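Figure 6 in text form: structure in, sequence out.
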């Protein structure tokens, strides 16, 4: 029961805690001092990420509005970036390239992280929801609204998102890493806020018809319905 609850409510925290445990064991049994230092570093980073994920805070990444992290933050968190890049590459091998992005309406495209030069030429703005990747070069207007995987935006970032979608050039491409959870969450907010859908349920249904692997986590769903009356 406890494990099921952790997977449902705290999947990312559990993932990084387990990685920290594994790296800690490797560091403990290693006889090479260099490996001890490397895996101790990995362990500390994973434990730190567990804490920040628990409190739903992206501050550790120190991302600027242009999506770039401060150099020292990037270097300290290098184990995190290495793991995510490896995982992302594996996922790409299993993915269907035709599912990179979809057109929702004349204002909105949604999808996963891709090279922005593969987007339709009509797309004028990109909203990047990832914290775990460095932004791709872009000829479009670029906005970073960092959200932890499987989670939801801070109050500050939800206000900034609403401000951006009101003012930026359109069409917009909204994406996270895989184009499933965070993308569904923010695209549903977009459709409701811009008046394309009358209800949150309707917005979710329309998006899921286009990207059938889209699914909100428990926390994302709870957040979306909590702010439903404010959008």
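Output sequence:
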């Amino acid at each position: 029961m406890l494990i099921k609850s952790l997977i449902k409510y705290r999947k990312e925290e559990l993932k990084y805690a387990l990685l920290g445990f594994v790296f800690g064991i490797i560091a403990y049994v290693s006889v090479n001092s260099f490996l001890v230092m490397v895996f101790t570093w990995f362990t500390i980073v994973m434990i730190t990420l567990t804490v920040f994920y628990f409190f739903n805070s992206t501050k550790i990444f120190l991302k600027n509005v242009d999506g770039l992290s401060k150099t020292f933050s990037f270097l300290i968190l290098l184990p995190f970036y290495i793991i995510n890049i490896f995982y992302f590459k594996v996922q790409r091998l299993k993915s269907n390239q035709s599912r990179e992005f979809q057109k929702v309406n004349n204002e909105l495209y949604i999808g996963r992280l891709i090279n922005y030069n593969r987007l339709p030429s009509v797309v004028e703005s990109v909203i990047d929801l990832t914290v775990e990747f460095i932004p791709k070069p872009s000829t479009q207007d670029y906005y970073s609204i960092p959200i932890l995987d499987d989670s939801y935006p801070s109050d500050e970032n939800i206000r900034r998102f609403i401000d951006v979608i009101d003012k930026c050039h359109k069409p917009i491409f909204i994406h996270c890493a895989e184009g499933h959870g965070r993308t569904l969450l923010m695209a549903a907010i977009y459709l409701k806020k811009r008046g394309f859908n009358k209800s949150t349920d309707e917005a979710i249904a329309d998006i899921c018809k286009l990207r059938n692997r889209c699914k909100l986590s428990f926390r994302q769903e709870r957040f979306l319905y909590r702010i439903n009356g404010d959008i």
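Caption detail: Residues 2-92 form one domain.
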